[in-house]
Design a protein that fits this description.
mainly alpha, two-stranded antiparallel sheet, 141 residues
């Protein structure tokens, strides 16, 4: 049976198929295959339950219950440090990671930062899209 696609992109299969759902597959050669399907909703017993984490805010030491005792201890230790101690820890971290920092700086200077590359890509994309819209030789589909 031959069916013609209307101006709005729709085809009519007939009343026999009214209300049915179809899985539409489009092959590489442009062939369209419609397969009738039945959708079975998940029941409440089949659905996964969300994980529930219970934290006693009084035991954690803060009102919202988001931090573990270990995290709270690290935060308290960081707050108790003097600015000189904080700077010393920063300097130690920088010294420990000197090779990795230097390698990253070389890489960024060679290929640019990710932010710069994304920015340039977006600019090129916008220009190409604007150029395609103004190109009179471009065919409309």
């Amino acid at each position: 049976m031959l069916k013609e696609v209307g101006a709005s992109g729709q085809i009519s299969l007939g009343k026999k198929y009214a209300g049915q759902l179809f899985d539409m597959q489009i092959a590489a050669d442009g062939a369209v295959t419609l397969t009738p399907v039945k959708v079975v909703p998940l029941t409440q017993t089949v659905q996964e339950e969300l994980a529930v984490y219970k934290v006693n805010p009084a035991a954690v030491g803060n009102a919202d219950g988001y931090y573990t005792p270990e995290r709270m201890a690290r935060r308290a230790a960081a707050a108790a440090r003097s600015p000189a101690q904080t700077q010393a820890l920063h300097d130690k971290w920088e010294e420990d990671n000197k090779d990795a920092i230097e390698a990253m700086n070389k890489r960024v200077s060679k290929i640019g930062s990710m932010a710069r590359r994304i920015h340039e890509w977006r600019q090129e994309k916008a220009l190409s899209e604007a150029g395609a819209g103004n190109d009179p030789s471009a065919e409309s589909v």
